[in-house]
What we know:
Elements: H1 3-9, H2 12-45, E1 49-57, E2 62-71, E3 75-82, E4 88-89, E5 102-108, E6 113-119, E7 128-136, E8 143-151
Antiparallel strand pairs: 1-2, 2-6, 3-5, 3-7, 4-6, 7-8
Amino acid sequence: MTLWAWVTHLGAGxxxxxxxxxxxxxxxxxxxxxxxxxxxxFTHDRRPRFTAVIESVNGxxxxxxxLRLDEPSPLSALTAEIRTKGVQFAGGQGYGPYPTATATxxxxxxxxxxxxxxxxxxxxxxxxxxxxxxxxxxxxxxxxTYVVETPVPQPGRISV
Length: 160
């Protein structure tokens, strides 16, 4: 039996079943794509929002970086990495005795703040501090990484 004879010998039910398989596969692919898109949108909508502030302490003797979680939900972990040259987290804050560019914080509720002491250069200070945040939510699928910026206080000028 030739291929053509075999194909023409198949009944209409076989063609209908093959068509149903193709439609089902296409529907499954489309549904999966919609689910991935919805999950990405949900994760983006739940991205943590922070207010970042650098404050002078003791008349400029040292400075602290405060990251307040404004919304939308609590975090299980926060990693902050300073991306601005010449600025770093001061040593002795629980992660080692030496200055570093990376610091962590755990269990941050909405309205709470992560606060670290930072070292700023005495001269040639940058205008903005860029901090890369890696946030972990309540589930292992909730992860966000992005950069926040905040103005750097400039030393006061003494006029004569």
